[in-house]
Amino acid sequence: MTTEQGVDLTWGVRIPMRDGVHLNATLYAPKPQTEPLPAIFTMTPYIADSYHERAYTFAQRGYVFALVDCRGRGNSEGVFRAMQDDAQDGYDTVEWLAAQPWCNGKVGMWGGSYAGFNQWATASRFPPHLATLAPAAAACPGVDVPWVNGVLDTYEVRWLILVAGRTGNSNLFGEESFWIDKWRELYLNHLPYKDLDRIVGCPSPTFQEWVAHPSLDDYWASMAPTQEQFARIDLPILTITGHYDDDQPGALHFYRQHMALASAAARERHFLIIGPWDHAGTRTPQREFGGLTFGEASIIDLNQLHTEWYDWTMKDGPRPEFLQARVAYYVAGAEEWKYADRLESIATGTRRLYLDSHGGQANDAFHSGVLADEPPGESAPDRYVYDPLDTRPAEIERQPIKDTFTDQRYALNLFGNGLVYHSPPFAEDTEVSGTVTFVAWIALDVPDTDFIVTLYEILPDGRSVWLTHDLLRARYRESLREAKPVTPGEITRYVFDDFLWFSRRVGRGSRLRLVIACPNSIHWQKNYNSGGVVAEETAADARTAHVTLYHDAAHPSYLELPVV
Fold first, then answer.
1. Residue 441, strand partner residues
2. pTM of this prediction?
3. Which of 73, 120, 394, 530 could serve as a FRET partner for 412 with CA atoms 20 to 30 Å apart?
4. Is 253 helix (H, G, I), strand (E, B) or coil?
5. pLDDT 10s digits, 150-174
6. Which residues of 345-356 are buried (b: 16+ CB within 10 A; e: fewer)?
7. Cis (ω within 30 of 0) for the bond into 141?
8. How far apart are CA 106 and CA 103, in angstroms?
9. Which of 76, 19, 13 is nearest to 44 (CA)?
């Protein structure tokens, strides 16, 4: 166990960038510091003081820790441009820290979410003295920020207010009733999504830039490492994410790209932890959140694990005992940690469940279709209608959701917009670990719409557990780089394979519930189905989508589960 020391503080340290801008840092150092030590830093847009407790802890444990305000935030100079300046600023910060007399030349990084993203951004510039990364819940531009598969959400403006100006805006950010009121204003009045920054009272050039780039173009590609850069990154890396982490897609994108492209030696030093956590839990795990409760084993001391990681990578200490293999994942339901050498090796097989229904009855949880082990023969398709002018769903969203991952308001109140399928009860406990795939044969009578597919476990007593979901804008069904309008009436094969990764022991007697619908919510950008620029659409552009989902011998629609 690390012996904790006293701490010395140096406030208002100015770190020079190559363009003459100075970033502001607060330095925490062990007291007394008798020799040069490794330095760790986090570069944050959320004001350095918000991570005081972490910095203090790592300084007590024998590291110099620098809390650095991102360019244009807090006491740093310059203008904050989300995700655009972090790579070079990160490089310059690493090299400045390494050159100080109190640093032994080894510099590591710590942090999550935005500060997970900018660790990868920094590594993509290869600062010579960067010794290790530990990105948690790392957001990736063009993957999970500011949209997923082309579908934007209303949270983005809320986040931009959090980082607007120079000071912290956490109280406004947390005012849930204000945000629900503003999102309802946009939704109920059918206002264009591009006006959302004005509606909430904070016109944002960044928001307008994001809206102007709805596909995966060079604007987004310039902010993340290229394939060539991933191939060259050769550092010890500790990636952390969670089953319910909103930025899990980004975190696993970084991980998978590095594992696919880096050298064998670099891959051997990249470790992954996937816990039963939400976004915040990737840094401070909680046993209970969103209506779910996990076992005692789900709580690990991440401060201690990080200390052991830095001791291993920058002080020649032993490898952390928790990291028994290169992948550690938690199996909810079984409430235990398991290990694997590769993420792809966890699932040892698949179970394919085919969609079917009785006479096209699949429109709600009480009159649902089925998920069957045998493929269908002759089977009538299922249909639903998505009318973008239907605002009834807003009534069930008037109040904040308290139990996020057990709430069934959407599955039970589809208002005709969606289809529901249930599996038979599981005959035995079954571990499902990985990313599910959903293949659906769908015909539309409009040139575009959005889909959301959600998977639940329904417990024998009727309670539900949200497992995973995927989103897809129909025009991007083949490529996020190039929009392709839907041919009305054409039966098209849609592949949903960007579900959140999860691991759960589905209990004997439980069933699965699959829900497919078009997002019609105050929380998502509304697609009015015209095929035009979605961010500019209003009620005048609205076209009602008639969705037909086929599941017959010629068009087998199915859900594929990764099973252990």
1. 493, 550
2. 0.97
3. 530
4. helix
5. 999 999 999 999 999 999 999 999 9
6. ebbeeebbbbbb
7. no
8. 7
9. 76
